[in-house]
Fold this protein.
Amino acid sequence: MNDTNEKLPNGWPIPKGSHVIVFCTCTLLFWVYLITDSDGYAGILDNFNLIIHEAGHMIFMPFGRTMHFWGGTLLQCLVPLAFLFSFWNTKQPAGVAFSGIWLGQNLLNISRYISDARDMILPLLGGGIHDWNTILGSMGLVRHCKTIGGLVFLLGWGMMLASATWYCLRWWNYSTSEGDI
């Protein structure tokens, strides 16, 4: 049943079983890497995310000092969200799931940065000012940085799990109804 050209009445394609297996395998390997990585930095992916983060500071700088500090984190979330919505609008479920996982992984990275707001021990690009120390400091919340960071961490894992589950359930719901597992 799972022909790549087969579509549901709403226009969404039915994921092919082999594609779901590759997706799940890669996703699980990525998650194992994230869980077992000692420094919490996801290599080339986080280097790419860092470029987006730094670009956010430049893009939002004209909107004032506060937006300059928020800009890095905002763009770091907006770029994967833009991909997610683009894939959603073009009905590409694997792209939606990938973008959701990318957003979730970004939230894990952001959670580390938030949690570091009081101690400020993470290395910063160019030895610059710590965004989250400044942001939380302006709100009187630096002492709660670990709690806030922990909540963002949970949100990140929730986003990744929800995205992967959504994609797999699309296949499961239609393959089991047709007996094609």
Notes: The longest helix spans residues 145-177. The mean pLDDT is 89.
